[in-house]
Amino acid sequence: QVEVVESGGGLVQPGGSLGLNCTASGTFVSIGTTSWHRQIPLKARELVARISTTGSTTYAEFAKGRFTISRNDATKTVNLQMNSLTSEDTAVYYCNTNLRTSASVIKNYWGKGIQVTVSP
Length: 120
Description:
Order of helices and strands: EEEEEEEEEEE
Number of helices: 0
Helix content: under 10%
Oligomer: single chain
Strand content: over 45%
Number of strands: 11
Radius of gyration: 14 Å
Distance between the termini: 40 Å
């Protein structure tokens, strides 16, 4: 059974930094393209950043210059470092990952999400 879990969220002051981790566990062959998304109440879930298997990255406009996504295939984690946080970054952050579960099967998984609150 595969599980994707986010960690590292919490409360941070405006201007502060926070690092989120996405860890995949269970039986699978490899981690594919993985992305972080966020959702603010009453708004649609939006892409924050994405990283491919080769390390190529994509960022939402609001994340450019402030957020950094990285991956460590040895530890099966994808990290999102967030700097210069503002109250507008307050949201539930979700990890989405594509896991190769066999030679011919790739499945998409979502984590349950983790709260990030930016407040004085």
